[in-house]
Polyketide cyclase/dehydrase/lipid transport protein (Roseateles saccharophilus), 180 residues
Amino acid sequence: MSKFSIVLICLAAAVLLLMAYASTRPGEFSVERRLRIAAPADRLWPLVGELRGFNRWNPYERKDPLIKGRYDGAAAGIGSRYAWESDKVGTGSLEITGQQPGRAVQMKLEFVKPFEAHNQAEFALRPTADGATEVSWRMHGPANFMHKLMGLFMDMDKLVGSDFEDGLQNLRQIAEGGQG
């Protein structure tokens, strides 16, 4: 057997082991960040519970000033929808699927490019005793085999989590600055 054949066999075995390991990874993922904002929940609600308000501080909108977005459906509430196309942040849509006004909103998040994904996004507002609000931003969804394989090389929590942290800081700036 030639050295080249041995190298190919070893390489194939390594790829198979990597794929086998990836298949054992969890079938779901979740990323969440929280931030205390010195503003009451009623000031934050229009910025979290309405898509136009959300896009004022959405970190992905800020990453691409040339993003092409469009709103569909109701102006606010369940059924409100926003779709975007961008060379920098991909293509997808966001739709409000549930709300508990002043407290929480649930959204369906669909990505088309750079890869297909079907996730859920949730925001929760929890008033604190001193009049501030703890805001949480969570995204979760299924992890198919390709996501599991990519997860071996990229930490989804760090990758997406840093964007969530930036977004929550943007929200804090608007809400605490009285521009909400």
